[in-house]
Amino acid sequence: MSVKLAFWLSDVSAPGRGNFKVVPGSHRTNWIDGPPRRNMEWPDPAGAIEVCADPGDVVMFDRRLWHARSLNRSAITRKAVFFGYTYRWVAMRDAPPAGLTGLTDVQRQLLGLLDGRAVEPADAGDHAWGHYPEDVPLYGWLRDNGHLDPAYPPLRP
């Protein structure tokens, strides 16, 4: 399972406002035709649709769904916040944000910045933070600040 959520801050309730555009069913294929060269106009894939949303709406979709933004031909500035969720053993696909300095290990873990890992890559197993709670910065922070319920079996040390 790997999903993305788009939180709409601006009004994209009509087409042509830089809407989120998807190709329904495209998560079942590994290829969509595009231009033969980068300097050519990219055609809309067959069946592509613009998703309309009001400010405050959230669109949840499978990350494998082919998606893009449409052209914004309106006077409205398109604003949205996208979040991705997947299991921690799934590798990050997006480039980490540039210019982030002075982050704690917990902040780096939550942002998916692997340079702050608590274990060496060879010892990490199926994800970058290791298999054991003591190797995971967020777990340590929760434990140290009294936010773990020892009655809950998955959180027992």
Using brief descriptors, characterize the structure shown:
single chain, 157 residues, mainly beta, Jelly Rolls, 2 domains, 3-stranded antiparallel beta sheet, 2 helices, 10% helix
Write the layout of secondary structure elements.
Blueprint: E1 2-8, E2 20-22, E3 49-51, E4 58-62, E5 67-69, E6 80-86, H1 105-111, H2 137-144
Antiparallel strand pairs: 1-4, 1-6, 2-3, 2-5
Fold and architecture overview:
The protein is mainly beta. The protein folds into two domains: 1-86, q2cbj1_9rhob like domain (Jelly Rolls), CATH 2.60.120; 96-157, no CATH class. It has two helices and six strands. Residues 115-119 have low confidence and may be disordered.
Q: What is the approximate shape?
A: elongated
Give the radius of gyration.
Answer: 20 Å
User: What is the count of helical runs?
Assistant: 2
Derived structural class: mainly beta
Specify the CATH class of the largest domain. Mainly Beta
Oligomer: single chain
How many structural domains are formed by the residues?
Answer: 2
Share of helical residues: under 10%
InterPro entries: Phytyl_CoA_dOase-like (IPR008775)
Pfam family, one: PhyH
Protein name: Phytanoyl-CoA dioxygenase
